[in-house]
Amino acid sequence: MELIKQEATVKNCVPGAEMEATLHLSAVNSDAPYVLATSPIPSSPAQDSQSSTASSGRMEKFLLLEALLSFLHSADSRVVVKACEGLMVMASLPSDVFARSVACHSDLCTILANKLNTLFATIPPDIDPNDIDDMQVNWGLDSPVWTDSSQFPGCRQVAAFLAWLDYCDQLVRESHPILGTALANSVRLEFLEKILGPALLQPDASNEVFITAFISKCLKQVSAPALLTEFLYWLVGENREPELPGLSTCPMRQHLLYNCFHKEDEVSLETLRLFEVLLQKRNEHVLHCLVLVYLTSRSYYDSSASDSLIGSWSDEEDERERQRDSPLLDFSPGSSPVSRTLAPSSINKVINSFLFLLPQHLHSTTDPDETGYEQYVQDADRQYQACTTQCACYGWPNEATFPESAEYDDSCSSDSRPEADHGCQFYEGPFLRMIFTRIARLPYQPYEINLQLTGLVSHLAMLPHPYLHEYLLNPLLPLRSEANSLFSILQLVAGELMSQIPAMKNYKHLLYVTRQKLLGDGSDIQEEENSLLESMVVLEEFCKELAAIAFVKYHHSS
């Protein structure tokens, strides 16, 4: 049996004495535990006797690990960096036994996670969220621009925290999977659940803005899969089953959704930004829990209407598919679309439904280069290609079809969803309900919130999931009586704006001026008129963006 030994000399200086110890890092084959042993060099027979007794009781302790951990508190940043590098080397050792032993029997994970707590406690709570979002800090690298306190008050403290979070993230990524998972779990238990969560629940609007922005920044910085998973589980929960209205299995998600309706617009805006960060991760679990689990039964679809009207584009394409063998139709090889749901033959109707939602006289511009949706196509195409690449491994279906009867019955049992005629009573889930409720308030909300809401919907509409695609981007969809869709909500908003804006004096000029102001030309408009006019411009541009997304997805799926 081969024995591998690595020796290091550690000198501990105490008043009047100096002791040297040789540390042996030993491993007997790749599956044996790594043992840290001490071999003291005594200066007297009395010390020899005492050291032999102490050594026998400390043979199984992680002495090198503990030494490295002690250097994390050094005032010399270079020493701290070297200690961090040493910990990363040890954590990446390939032995399962060693990794499990360190995870279960050492203080490594707890100490690293608790340092996050200590650094977070030093950050003043009155920091501007925009200042936090602009910071780019990495551990082990000098960042004088962020360590200079003149940037903004608390800059150095935030930089120290983000640098340590970056180290924990890299350590989780580089560590043995057993140890990396344990560290990620410790960060969740010690920092997220004990510190950050309770801080968010404090009834202080300014504090909630800061904590929410801080969570968003942490989420942007974390990339190690195990640590990111713990963040996401903490925010949206681990339960993948649909929830009934008014019930929630995840207190954090419930609180964030509640904050989207906060009386202080700053809290709502920052919470919507956090949800945007979550959607930008394009994590399958997050998308499933927030949206997809409520749509896969297709219970929003009114099947009784399809006998007289083929409204769903996927069903329309099914009809075309049934006629494929007809001698009157010629389908050349390869002409069948990749997805009939994403590439309907009625694409022109779909696009025009969005573009003509508002009448021409309420458009804020008559410039041909700005009236169409073409200006959004290039950006939508780039985003959709990136989105399909990220989501390719999720195994989503290509078509929006009704589930098999057995599966449908199980998913609609009394334990999970209420019964209704023709299947399940449709519930879009708390996240989509929040979005639809706030979009319905579009005419009376601040411009920043409206912009954030439409951004959230655009992220969802971009996803290559057939049920979500059909539900958000099919204006022709026959809906159940209790179901709302994105287009039905937009129709309500358009009706509200069409009833109020034409009553304004010289409203066409005001719309043009508002558009120019939002593009950077600062012209003053009365406050009560400003909200309605800005909402009209937002709705106009949002419809163009949705039309562009529908067109791009059609192009890539046909």
Describe this structure in words.
The chain has helices spanning 45-57, 63-70, 77-91, 96-105, 108-121, 129-133, 144-147, 155-174, 177-200, 205-221, 225-236, 251-259, 265-280, 284-290, 313-322, 347-355, 368-371, 374-391, 405-411, 430-440, 447-461, 466-473, 486-500, 507-518, 527-557, and strands at 3-14, 17-28, 35-40, 419-420, 423-424. The relative contact order is 0.08. The chain contains 25 helices and five strands. It folds into three domains: 3-61, no CATH class; 65-236; 293-321 and 347-557, no CATH class. Helix 23 (486-500) packs antiparallel against helix 25 (527-557) and helix 24 packs across helix 25. The strands form two sheets. Strands 1-2-3 form a three-stranded antiparallel beta sheet. A two-stranded antiparallel ribbon has the order 4-5. It is mostly helical and 558 residues long. The N and C termini lie far apart (63 Å). Residues 428-520 form the FHF complex subunit HOOK-interacting protein C-terminal domain. Residues 304-340 are annotated as: Disordered. Belongs to the FHIP family. It holds the Pfam family DUF5917. InterPro entries: FHIP, FHIP_C, FHIP_KELAA_motif.
Q: Keyphrases for this structure?
A:
two-stranded antiparallel sheet, 25 helices, 3 domains, disordered N terminus, 558 residues, 3-stranded antiparallel β-sheet, mainly alpha
